[in-house]
Amino acid sequence: MAGVFGNLFSSLRGVDEDMLEELQDAMILADVGAALSEEITDTLRERIKEKKIKESGEVRKELTSIIADILRQGEGELKLSTRPSVILVIGVNGVGKTTTIGKLAASLRSEGKNVMLAAGDTFRAAAADQLGIWAERASVPLIRHGEGADPAAVVFDAIQAAKARGTDVLICDTAGRLHNKQNLMNELSKIGRVVRRELPDADVETLLVVDATTGQNGLLQAREFEKTADVTGIVLTKLDGTAKGGIALAICRELEVPVKRICVGEKLDDMLPFDAESFAEALFSE
Question: CB burial class (10 A; 0-12, 13-18, 19+) of residue 172?
Answer without folding.
Answer: buried
